[in-house]
Amino acid sequence: MKVLIVDDSEAFRKVMIELLVRVGFSDVVEAQDFDEGIKVFQRDRPKISFVDMILPGKSGVELTEEIVKTDPKAVIIAMSSIVNKKMIRQSLDSGAKDFLLKPTNEIALGAVLAMWSD
Amino acid sequence: MSLFSRKPKVGQREDGLGISRKYSLQPGKCYIVEESPPDLSFDAFVNILSTQEEACAKVTGLAISRQHPDLIKQKYGLEKTPIFWLATRAGQDVIAPTNLGILTHTIVKFIEDSSCGVILLDGLEYLVSNNDFNKTLRVINQVMDHVAQSQCRLIIPVDPRALDPKELALLERNAEKIVGANAKRA
To answer: pTM of the full predicted structure?
Structure first.
């Protein structure tokens, strides 16, 4: 199962890839912003996309809306390093299925993947 | 103000966020989370408070931390959860690290008043450095006994580098251990 990570921090993407491999998901593609995110999504059609809500340029909420337009069945997990309730609700309203607080860990990541990978 | 006047406001539940529960921490249990910084502990605390639970309609929280309450509220979006600051400054929501009586009373009172709460006690190393390990352990064990007789959960993040292996073993004896990704042993 293919997983997409969209985050402008290369270090965070590396940590996420390591965590994903540890919980059994090694087919991972990555992107650093809106433009690359939509391009990689359209090319690879990942089953789950982890999208940081704060991206340079267009936001993670806008990327979520665009991905859902492309594929209404896309599973998007919003991520952020703070719990901004307004932004989380915006993400869920625009089509994200769940939220992960950064930095995440194996327990939270494993739970999200178990819930949304079927 | 009487000695035991600090009473956490119980019964104010955080609004649900419509996200899923990611941590299956059992009621009546204590969890020692080996990590530094306490990211997993705070994530679990906030996640439990922000999600619905079938068995309990009203999960409330109590946080006691070395971090300033304003920072915690800002980062984790907590609006209704009482947060106490472990510090030597005077103030309404401040607990002095040497005042283990007030600390114990605050937690026990919350457990008694809350049908199914979740407690985060962050700053164990600070308590140990201001008291001694055995004195702090007695308080933790006392709180754990109250938790065991309730539907509450207790989360204690610990930096394993700050304690020797024997102290860590004593602390974990009556609790479930969770090892965070960022845990480093001494």
So the answer is: 0.91
Q: Where are the domains of chain B?
A: 30-179
Partners of B178 on chain A (C-beta within 8 Å) are: 107
Residue of B nearest to A78 (CA): B19
CATH fourth-level superfamily of A3-116 = Response regulator (3.40.50.2300)
How many whole angstroms separate alpha carbon B69 and alpha carbon B150?
Answer: 26
ipTM of the complex in this document: 0.89
Q: Could you tell me the CATH superfamily of domain B30-179?
A: P-loop containing nucleotide triphosphate hydrolases (3.40.50.300)
Residues of B in contact with A115 (CB under 8 A): 20
B43, B45, B50, B73, best to mutate vs chain A, most A CBs in 10 Å: B43
